[in-house]
Amino acid sequence: MSASNAFAGKVVTRFAPSPTGFLHIGGARTALFNWLFARHHGGEFHLRIEDTDRARSTEPAIAAILDGMTWLNLNWDGEVVYQFSRAGRHAEVAHQLLASGHAYRCYATPDELTALREEQRAAKQPMRYDGHWRDRSDRPNDVPYVIRLKAPRDGAVTLHDKVQGAVTVNNTELDDFVLLRSDGTPTYMLAVVVDDHDMGVTHVIRGDDHLNNAFRQLALIRALNWEEPIYAHIPLIHGSDGAKLSKRHGALGVDAYRDEMGLLPEAVENYLLRLGWGHGDDEIISRDEATGWFELAGVGRSPSRFDIKKLENLNGHYLRAADDGRLAALITARAAAALGRELTADDQALLQRTMPELKKRASNLNELAASSLFYLRSRPIPMDEGAAKLLASATPGLLDRIRARFAAQDDWSAAALEQVARDMATSEGAKLGQIAQPLRAAVTGSAQSPGLFEVLEVLGRQEVLGRIDDVLAG
RNA sequence: GGCCCCUUCGUCUAGCGGUUAGGACGUCGCCCUUUCACGGCGAAAGCACGGGUUCGAUUCCCGUAGGGGUCACCA
Question: pTM to 2 decimals?
Answer without folding.
Answer: 0.94
